[in-house]
Amino acid sequence: MSWTYIVAWLLPVATGAAVYLAVSPRRVAGWRLSAAGYGFLLGMLLAAIFTSIAAYSDTSRATVNAGICLLVALALAAAMAWRRRNEGEIAAAVEGIALANWQRAVITGLLASLVVRAAIAAREIWLRPLYPWDAWSAWAVKPKAWFLLGHYVPFVSLPDWLRAAGDSYTEVAWHYPDALAWLEVWFASGAGGWVEPLINLLWLGLWVALLLGHYGQWRALSVSRARALVFVYALGSLPLLSVHTALAGYMDMWVSAAIGFGVLSWMRWLRDRERSQLTIALVCAAALPWLKMEGWVWAICLLAAIGFGMLPIRLRRRMAIGGALLFVVLFPLGGLHFLSVHAGVINPDGSVAMPVIGPLALVLNLQWQSGALKGSIETLFAQPNWHLLWWLTPAIVVWRWRELVAHDWLRLPAALLLICATLLLVLFLFTEASAWAQSFTAINRLVLQLVPAWMTVLVMLLRDVHWPEPASDTVPSRDLRSDTA
């Protein structure tokens, strides 16, 4: 392992953390871990951006050429963070009641199991080449070609490739966003070659960053340390999240991190009106289209929700009622099909091809797909992908519905995720994408994209539920008002 590979890891994370601290200087509980988690995502996005610019004609030296840009960004962000270090107030950490020794032992065991899980995932990544189908057949084709060729070449559709006389390539996923491609070029350059285990360790880093960022933000949102650690275990132990870590190569974890971090920052703005967190939420939303195609849909939903949250409450209620009535009335009457006609083309089979981005089109066939409902229910409630998450979710919502109704900063993100879930149901139950539900493929990956954000809603619903009274062996809690870990 060379020093350039170590730099390829440390430089983006340091830059991203500095950017986060420069934008959000407020020192609340968990701010260090928030900076580490968000810093990983922001830094890797910056590395991808600078690699796409500085390593365009020489991908083998991406770590050097793009690294200079990152160093400049790190210096500027660090200087701004240092200058603003005294602007943010130091808030006291929120603690629950003292824990019994057995409760401390349980939490320690849960965290130890996450460490073991990370070690197993690292071993899986280290001992196998790029394995998942879409990873090597779609996502890794462009970066591998660019790196082995030594320079960028355009990827175009098959008809355009057949007509083109110049230097171009084609593949089935030629239109996919390029953020991951340039990030893999960055790490391949740092590793000194296309060494897939060294590149794929990136997913283990993202898993750790996802947990750190959520823990830090949950603490900032007044969740006690013990409770936040328990929910970190609940998130980190989800089987499908572990699979996407160990079988690295998919983009869904990156989308889930961007959505999860965006919702967390938006929630902090809704509750405390921290403008810096609103800025970070907008950055996360803006990054989504560069990560994956459906990122456009999630970005529009998140940006629309943020704008909706800025409106007066009376206007919000009118818009929500009107939108719900419009959907309920028009959908059974084929209104969505009718509205789509104005922006698309009706195919002979009755489907509607709607232009999305340039030559790309979204084909909708809004007809009930009978087999998809069974596949969706089995995916969420019968398969071992989510533990008991979807069994517990309705019980928690029913139990804590007063919390959901009482807090605007919790109600709005929950409504956003409900709309996103509705879009997924429409996609899988009323379009030809139902095949993905019946085969248990894309439905799992798309649900994964929303799970960290939904976990945040559940954490907020349960943050004030009291622990059982401790036994006589309770260790008194110390004063942690100055402890912001």
How are the secondary structure elements laid out?
Blueprint: H1 3-23, H2 31-54, H3 62-83, H4 101-127, H5 133-139, H6 141-149, E1 155-156, H7 158-163, E2 169-170, H8 179-191, H9 196-220, H10 225-236, H11 239-246, H12 252-272, H13 275-291, H14 295-309, H15 313-330, H16 335-341, E3 345-346, E4 352-355, E5 361-364, H17 370-381, H18 389-399, H19 401-406, H20 408-430, H21 434-438, H22 442-462
Parallel strand pairs: 1-2
Antiparallel strand pairs: 3-4, 4-5
Helix pairs in contact: 1-2, 1-3, 1-8, 2-3, 2-8, 2-9, 4-9, 4-10, 4-11, 6-8, 8-9, 9-10, 9-11, 9-12, 12-13, 12-14, 12-20, 12-22, 13-14, 14-20, 20-22
Give a written overview of the molecule.
The strands form two sheets. This protein has a three-stranded antiparallel beta sheet, with helices on one face. A two-stranded parallel sheet has the order 1-2. It is built from 22 helices and five strands. The chain has helices at residues 3-23, 31-54, 62-83, 101-127, 133-139, 141-149, 158-163, 179-191, 196-220, 225-236, 239-246, 252-272, 275-291, 295-309, 313-330, 335-341, 370-381, 389-399, 401-406, 408-430, 434-438, 442-462; strands at residues 155-156, 169-170, 345-346, 352-355, 361-364. Helix 7 (158-163) links the parallel strand 1 (155-156) and strand 2 (169-170). Helix 2 packs antiparallel against helix 3, helix 9 (196-220) runs antiparallel to helix 10 (225-236) and helix 12 (252-272) runs parallel beside helix 22 (442-462). Mean pLDDT is 85; it is low at 335-363 and 470-485. The chain is mainly alpha-helical and 485 residues long. It folds into two domains: 3-293, no CATH class; 308-462, no CATH class. 39% of the residues are buried.
